[in-house]
Description:
Helix content: 40-55%
Largest sheet: none
Oligomer: single chain
Distance between the termini: 29 Å
Shape: flat
Structural class: mainly alpha
Strand content: under 5%
Number of strands: 0
Radius of gyration: 22 Å
Number of helices: 7
Amino acid sequence: MNIPQNLPIAPLQSKAARYQLGLTQAEVIEESSLPGHKLKNFETGRFIPDLKFLMDLKGYYVGKGINLEELATGDPAQTPAAKPLPGAAMVQIDHRMRFYVSDKHEQEKVDAVLELMDTNDMRIAAVLKEPVSTGLFGGFDDNTEALQRELFGLMAMNYFLFRTLQGRSIAVPPPPEDGAQKTIADTLAAWIATGPMAALVAAEQVSAVSASAAPSPDREGEA
Length: 223
């Protein structure tokens, strides 16, 4: 992904503008109709969105009466000496290491991956709130075990997607032509090729899988 040299708005400016307006991320997303995952990941420094998004976000804050030039950018060389704004003390300059998205990915694919990761995060949060139930003869009942499989499947999927964004995806060999899953790698390839990640990963990493190679319904979501 190409990163603009001079961003229309910096992550720290977006945070400071929200604090000055007294708005949450959810409220900005709702009012601006901008993609939620882009704002969330932009403000945390996980990635730099496309230029159109940044211009639209800047326009939203400017339309609210915010003077972005008075807000800190996170770059000391570009931060003007000005009177601290209300709430500015809550915004800290972040010098931590970050992972950037590989240049080989098109913006549309990056958006799709981040959207899926956000959806998975919300489902993970919901699963974690589910109560644990025991079976008739002890141990976990079928529902609890299914939730555990789903949880670990979602976490594994997000890890795979994260590595895909970095351009360092796990190498997934195609299953044998006879459809027999002889190794764990074969089951992983089948799981990926029949799930929501199939359209997101590189073509050379996912092959067409016959119906006989697909995992059974009762194991859906299990890596």
